[in-house]
Specification:
The complex is a heterodimer of chains A (156) and B (67).
Chain A lengths: L1 H29 L12 H30 L1 H12 L1 H10 L1 H18 L4 H28 L9
Helix pairs in contact in A: 1-2, 2-3, 4-6, 5-6
Chain B lengths: L4 H7 L4 H8 L3 H8 L7 H10 L4 H4 L8
The chains are: A mainly alpha (156), B mainly alpha (67).
Amino acid sequence: MAKMKKQIERRIRILWVGFFILSLLNAYDNIGPGFPVTDYVSEYILEFQQGLRAGGILVILFVICRYMLAMRDEQKLKKLFYRMTDERMTMVRMKSGAPIMLGSAVALLAVSMVAMYFNTTVSLTLIACAVFLIVVAAVGKVVWNARLTSIEDDSQ
Amino acid sequence: MNTKIRELRKAQKLSQAELALAVGTTRQTITSIEVGKYTASLVLAYKIARYFGQTIEEVFDFSEVEE
């Protein structure tokens, strides 16, 4: 369990770094002088990126809160650890192909950020593909979870 | 695959969540193994059998497995 604690502490530190970077960028854009609108960088691009950063901040905060709550309670930490390493959940993830799909979605989003500076249509298409992949991964997880789980619950 | 987990658990008045915590898995996985929707890995099967002080063959029914 000590190893798990260390792993979660490291994850929290990495998440805090991500949180501060995204917050600084958004603060610079909102409170500070902000990123300038040029021939290549339209207002739409800046607003979209700002929204994406805001979304990232919210997700990071949610995960940090989840980890910090688990760190306070040994029982919750154990449950979190078992949930993360559970063999059935691992199989669900593998069968649904979620890791590769989510990885591809992140890569597509990153490429779309660059494509935004050249062609808006291409960038929007890439974003749509990324969203589609995320939805397919989520549906796959739900389907495989249902196949490998019984609704029968006998707690005693 | 049929198992004796439910019977053994009930004999010891143990909930699925308690057993899951004891063997290092989730309650949902124990439920799935009990109803035969999921076949436990060798490691998990060993942990469950050891928890009840029995062998894997005594807890898990391998009669349906083709030779």
